[in-house]
Design goal:
The chain is about 40% helix and about 25% strand. By secondary structure, it is α/β, with parallel strands linked by helices. The strands form two sheets. A seven-stranded mixed beta sheet has the order 3-2-4-5-1-6-7, with helices on both faces.
């Protein structure tokens, strides 16, 4: 006889002041330590000090929020791998993740909000437990409202209750995609492609990126791998003509592919990683790992895929 699999939990902790934070976070972490979970905490130094006054944090792995929240897809991939390993060993990953919303542009905030929703689909198989503290006094009201849509449960004291504002991740994801992309600048390099030749297209992008955008070699090579996948999809699922555009914006290099077809929805357009051990299905998920930012809009009017890679020392946003 085997133990029943643990249910996945993703909980919002809206709190006011240190007492409110500790009232929800401390029981959550204590339960994980008592059960022998792998316990991770992505918190500010101030929160770490508060937690250290209330429980033995020697078995808690503390992570730097600046590094952990650097890239949504890569963070999701790494944490999901940790959760899968814990589940395979008969245990559980327990994560206290304190979101960092300051100094983020609107587009980057939306991308992390979308990730909060995608977590519910990606981690469901793992039985992990995740709690996200949101300080209500310093977090914008709109961000708190969206958090109620992306977390199935809300914590009140030491209790978790069903969140009536919760929205299924697929529905939330579709709502994010209803916002149109900003138009490309008039100065964008534009090329109409009738019959795609991937070798020639990659050479053309590489030459323009090196000479005009001064894009370093490492991000350029990542972009070229990503653009191969996008062009392949445009040939397979799109409709001619295919339009390639390139430009620089906010110290990032942007490459856009547009066609007249409507792409089919597969694996959430790359937002949800494929299950482990399923080779050949990386596709758009791999594109999201390779690029700093990926935006996809598809509908009856056609499909646009916009890829951005950061230049050193900055982040792509509002592209």
């Amino acid at each position: 006889m085997t133990d029943a699999p643990r249910p996945f939990a993703h909980r919002l902790l809206p709190y006011e002041g240190a007492d409110g934070l500790l009232a929800g976070a401390v029981p959550f972490l204590r339960a994980g330590l008592a059960d022998g979970d792998r316990v991770l905490a992505v918190t500010s130094l101030a929160t770490r000090v508060l937690l250290g006054d209330e429980l033995d944090t020697g078995a808690v792995e503390f992570l730097d929020p600046a590094e952990w929240y650097a890239h949504p897809a890569r963070t999701l991939a790494a944490t999901l791998a940790d959760a899968d390993v814990a589940a395979q060993r008969g245990g559980r990953l327990r994560l206290l993740a304190e979101p960092a919303w300051t100094r983020r542009g609107a587009a980057e905030v939306r991308e992390w909000q979308r990730t909060e929703a995608i977590v519910n689909a990606a981690f469901d198989r793992t039985g992990a437990a995740i709690m996200c503290p949101y300080p209500v006094r310093s977090t914008p009201a709109g961000v708190i409202a969206d958090a109620r849509r992306t977390h199935p449960e809300t914590v009140r004291g030491d209790r978790a209750v069903a969140n009536p504002g919760y929205v299924e991740p697929r529905v939330y994801n579709a709502a994010c995609d209803r916002d149109p992309l900003p138009p490309p600048p008039a100065s964008a390099e534009t090329l109409q492609i009738a019959r795609p030749d991937l070798y020639w297209i990659r050479a053309y992008i590489a030459d323009w990126a090196r000479q005009t955008a001064r894009l370093p070699e490492e991000p350029l090579q990542r972009l070229l791998v990503a653009i191969t996948e996008i062009m392949t999809n445009a040939q397979a699922h799109g409709a001619p003509p295919i339009t390639l555009r390139m430009w620089t914006a906010r110290d990032a290099f942007v490459c856009e592919v547009a066609d007249r077809g409507r792409w089919p929805e597969r694996s959430w357009y790359g937002f949800v990683p494929p299950p482990p051990g399923v080779p050949g299905q990386l596709g758009l998920w791999a594109v999201r790992l390779l690029c700093s930012r990926v935006d996809i809009r598809t509908g009856d009017g056609g499909t646009t895929v916009r890829l951005a890679v950061d230049t050193p020392g900055v982040r792509a946003d509002a592209l």
